[in-house]
Design goal:
With 207 residues, the protein is mostly helical. It contains ten helices and no strands. It has helices at residues 3-14, 18-29, 32-48, 58-74, 106-124, 128-139, 144-151, 155-178, 189-193, 196-199. It is elongated, with a radius of gyration of 18 Å. The termini are far apart.
Length: 207
Amino acid sequence: MTDGERSRRFEEVALPHLDAAYNLARWLSGSASEADDVVQESFLRAFRFFDGFRGGNARAWLLAIVRNTWYSEWNRRPDAALVPFDDAMDDAGPLAGWNDGARSDPETLAMQRQDAEQVHRALADLPVPYREVLVLRELEDMSYGDIAAVAGIPVGTVMSRLSRGRRLLAAALRDRQQRPGIASGTATGAAQGADIGAARAGRRGSE
């Protein structure tokens, strides 16, 4: 394969997933400028090691590089200590009231948009390991298996972190709605069910 053919093939494989790469980097870093740097470095790494890509799920392959690139940078920081986890403490069942179904009537959509900002803010405050599995599952619609491949963890761990992450998110939303001055379009929407469907309206992290 010539260099030109390799470049064209890389563009065909990687560029369709640029938005997903930025979305993950944005949610992991919490910064638009850092996300740009992470994505740029990730694509350079992906191109450098493109000969090792044997086909399959290109998005999972690329997002794993994005995640590893960000963690490599993050682990050099003094505040990189992870929150301790006990994945075994949570079952893998769905959170009661969790709603990721599609509701399309105008009134519901309007309320979902009002709730989306609160969901984004609460999600951004979660510990990174919970945030990343929620973003990959709920915003990127990835399977448990693909999330496991991206994050380098067993599928069972993916499921337990999703379960616990959803509980933490719901608790954070309830806490936000109880603060003075915090208004919600749906008194029961985001807090009771962590309606991530609303958050899908804005897939990228809040600025």
